[in-house]
Amino acid sequence: MSTTDTLKNLDAALPSPVAVPSSVLVAAGLIGGYGVARLTKVRSLGGVALLACGVAAGRTWLASAGPATTAGLSTLYIAGFGLSHPLAKKMGAWPSVLAVTAVNAGASWALVDRHNFAEAA
What we know:
The protein is an all-alpha fold. Helices cover 88% and strands 0% of the residues.
C-alpha cells in the first residue's frame, strides 16, 4: 500500500474536516493546551493538546481555504503560542492566553469558518 493510499484511508476514517469550526479548535488548542499544562504541571501534555487541535484545525483550513490560508493561519497559531509567553510577563498568564486565542480564533473565523457556515445556512 502506498503512502497516498494510506493517507486516503486515514482521511476516510476521520470525520469531515469542517464538522467542527476551526475557530473552536483553535480556542480549544490554545486555552486547553495551557490549562492542561498548568493543571498537570507537565508541559508536554499541554503541547499534545495544542498540537492535536492545531492539526484538526489545519485539516479544516486546508479543505476549506487551501494551502496559502492554511500556512498563514498555522504560522499565526504557532506565533500566538510563542508570543503568549513574553506577553504573560506583561499582563499575566491567563490574560495573555486569552488575548492570543481571541486573535487566532477571530482570524480563523474570518478567513475560513464564516464561509463554511454561510454556505450551510
